[in-house]
Amino acid sequence: MNATTTKFAQFGFDYTRFRFGLRTGSAACLALFLAWALGLEHPQWAAMTVWSVSQPTRGLLLEKAGFRALGTIIGTSVGILIVLMTQDINLLAGLMLTFWVVACVYASTLLHGLISYGAVLAGYSASMVVLLTRTTDALVYIGVDRLVTVMLGILTALIIGWLFTYKRAEQTLVNKVRRQTAANLQLLAKAFDQGSIEKLPVHDHITQLAHLETQLNDHGSGSPSAHLSAKLFRRLLNAQLGIFAQLETLHFSGKSLTPYPELSEALKSCAQAIIDNDTKRMRATVIALRPFVAKTPIADAFFEFEQAATERLSFRESGAVAQSVRSPSLLLHRDWRGAKESALRTLAVMGLISILWAITGWMPLVFLLLGASVMLTLFSTAENPAKTMYYVFVGQAAGAFIAVSIQAFLWPHTDSIFTMLLCLVPVVLLAGIPMSHNRTSPGSMDFVLVFLLLMQPNLHYQFDAVQSISIALAVTAAPLLAMASYKLVFPTNLRSRQRHLLQALERELQDIEQRKLTLQQLERYRARFYHRLFKLYQIADKLDFNAKLTAARWLLRVQQDLNKHEPS
């Protein structure tokens, strides 16, 4: 495996992504022909669903499939309702669909993890029913066809994915957290060795914790046990951030740590137990820290770490914890302003296209509206959606070009739906190749999805160059339109997301200044503050040195304000 991986890497390919792409392409081909065998009108939707649902780990696969199914059911139902209520009145249908998608994008921006993905699916599943239903008489048929086809794709992706996903893939984050926790304890040992955090890379370690935090939503997927594991990890990461924040506060207030060799040795022993992955020693060495830590000015932060570590070890041994996970570990940052801006942007763009569609009746605008509903929902939470749209456009343009080429040169010479679908197999099967290369991977998923979207087979096919090219251009225009909207209508990038975070922190700090908090309220605020600080460090690591300084200043300010409210 190592030799194969190295050989792939020499040519810019990632073997793991190639294996995943080949598996997914095979499953998509299987779903394509199963849908045709069942007599479904849009068999390509089953293949699209396989590509959308497939994941590299079992937990993610299972939960994403569930939210895909739920989002499709809700979106399809809403789409049918909109068509029934509007009765082929284009303007009314377009505007009602717009308001529904706006509600979905608002919700998806506020939510976290795969439930956000479910909200996105509910939005553009309605779009596919409303915009691809040519007559009201075919409404129920196309709605049921859409639902059954998607469910078939989900089931195929689940079965193939479950059989061929690495069983140990779920352990990746567990090992990363374990190694980082040990590194953090070793850093703390150095601090107590020298009696200061001077010249120690504290903020680099916080950045590493922040990047681990981004993976918790994926880790907590697939089962109640996985969700509990993610909650316990979040509490453990928060506890370590709390220790570093208190150390920074002491340092900048001019209070130096007293060199404490005994605590330093105890921390090193605990770190080594974690590195050795010895559960009994981990539990013993964590408890052994208590009498030493009690003599330090950061005893409360260490106590939180001890509690979090003990709960995590209990979960590891028995799958449960000795006490319920406290609610503060569940409180996460929600970008209310970003959600409002995303909703208004979606309203403006989709509303304008709907009006143009109603005035002109031009069919390609339907596909532009469909593409816009996907681009403005699915990518609204991206770090830099305008930049993402560039890769999406390149991938979609390539997919549309190949789709039109097959429509022009191969499909007119086929005599059955089966042979038409056979023409799709090489593209679908080999889509894993661009997915696995470093240069082409960003737009590879959009390449295969748009290719499949445009490939609607029908008997006695005749190529209509004007219609095919017009539809292809309309579909590929959607990411360009979205790119312009992301740049011009409430510009969204890492800088704007950093600004939103700082404004949220400022508002909440002002809020707690005017309140007398109970211990429980303080813990709730602390949990949300820490989650926002993690987000700030994640953004800063991708920007520049000034952004890192900003994150460090806000870490200090937040912890100082929280300390004011600590019970004496």
Automatic annotation (TrEMBL):
Instruction: Name where it's found.
Output: Cell membrane
Segments passing through the bilayer: 20-39, 65-85, 97-126, 146-166, 342-359, 389-411, 417-435, 469-489
Q: Which spans of this chain does the record mark as coiled coil?
A: 495-522
What GO CC annotations are associated with the protein?
plasma membrane
> Per its record, what are the GO molecular function terms?
transmembrane transporter activity
Q: Name one Pfam family in it.
A: FUSC
What is the recorded membrane topology of this protein? Answer: Multi-pass membrane protein
InterPro entries to which the protein is assigned, alphabetical? PHBA_efflux_AaeB/fusaric-R (IPR006726)
| Superkingdom per UniProt | Bacteria
- Which coarse location class describes where this protein primarily resides? membrane
Task: Recite the UniProt keywords alphabetically.
Answer: Cell membrane, Coiled coil, Membrane, Transmembrane, Transmembrane helix, Transport
Question: What PANTHER family does the record point to?
Answer: MULTIDRUG RESISTANCE PROTEIN MDTO, P-HYDROXYBENZOIC ACID EFFLUX PUMP SUBUNIT-RELATED
Name under which the protein is recorded: FUSC family protein
